[in-house]
Each structure stands twice: as C-alpha cells, then as structure tokens.
# Entry
Amino acid sequence: MKIAVFYGTVEGHTRKIAGTIAAQLEEMGHQAMLVDVSQPGPTGVGEMDAAILAAPIHVGQYPPAFVSFIQNWKSQLADLPTALVTVSLGIASKIRVEREEAESFPEQLFEQTGWRASRVHNAAGALKYVEYDFFKRWMMRRISEMEGGPVDTSKDHELTSWDQLREFVSNFVLEVDMVQ
Ligand SMILES: Cc1cc2nc3c(=O)[nH]c(=O)nc-3n(C[C@H](O)[C@H](O)[C@H](O)COP(=O)(O)O)c2cc1C
# Structure
C-alpha cells in the first residue's frame, strides 16, 4: 500500500517520530511518503491508500501549518483511513488533569477542522534542554519538575515509548490491510 506520513514539528522531535513511522511502514513492505506539511509542494493525498498525521503540542496548540494542512485537505483525507499521532509532554505527566488535557487535544483538533482520524495515538515527546535557550530551559525544567518529569538539564530526554508507537502503527496498518 501507499501510505503518507504527514507531519508538523517545531523542534524536530515529531520529524524523528514521523521518520520512524515511515521506516516501519517500509519494513512492513509498504511504500511510505514522508511529507513536512510546512513545506510547499505536492502532497499526493489523492494517490494514497492511507495516511498517518503527526504533530506536537506547543502552548496548548498544534502548529498552525499542520491545522491549515488539515483544513485544506480534509475532503481528500476524509476518503482515506487516517491515524493521528499527537506528541506532547502532558501525556507523560504524573498529574492526572495534565494527562486528561493532553488526551483532549485530538478531539479539539477534530472540532476545529471538521476532519476526524479513524485512529488516535498520544505519544510522549522530548525535552530538548540542551537546545533550549536559557529562559526556555528554565521554564521547561520548572514545568517538568511539577509534572514529575526529568530535571537534568545537562542532556536531552526522549519520553517517547517507541514500542507503543510501533504497536499503534502495526495495528492501524493491519486494519487498513483487512478492509482493502
Ligand atoms: C515552548 C514549549 C511549549 C510546550 N507546550 C506544551 C503544552 O502546552 N502541552 C504539552 O503537553 N507539551 C508541551 N510542550 C512539549 C512538546 O509537545 C514536546 O517537547 C514535543 O516533543 C515537541 O515536539 P517537536 O520537537 O516536534 O516540536 C511544549 C514544549 C515547548 C518547548
């Protein structure tokens, strides 16, 4: 099958997630097309058998380019089996309301755009302390400390469960394969 992986990113971690998904799809014998939605160019949505969309949350929002991409292509996306991978740190929080808020982001996106994915996965993201500037590092460390996350700012931390992501992608592709 031809499967697109459309992604948005601010700091690059979702690009890594999208690349990992594309590599898994190829390993499973499918043709993967990896597309950064912030770059102009053909999307190929109409030629796909399925699509996986991935984007992070920054200050409670998906990247504007990702939301615009969905708004522009929602009628073509609606004709395909689709999966949404939302990347956030709230989903890994020790505080229940933070996790619940993170779980609500996909539904907010569906209401905002009028498009709805067939399957949803909430993945924990990364803390890129080394790459943050002084103020962002200070702010992210404070938030992370409150939420029971990593506080060692001398290195970056990936909280993503690659096994859970892999399982989600496998299950989605198997479901799509069954109905093709
Ligand atoms: C400035 C900033 C704001 C963020 N805001 C949120 C947020 O509101 N909720 C959340 O769960 N995670 C938040 N995060 C965590 C990101 O979702 C996480 O770092 C993710 O891995 C970023 O993905 P990206 O590298 O693809 O941009 C924020 C991170 C940064 C740096």
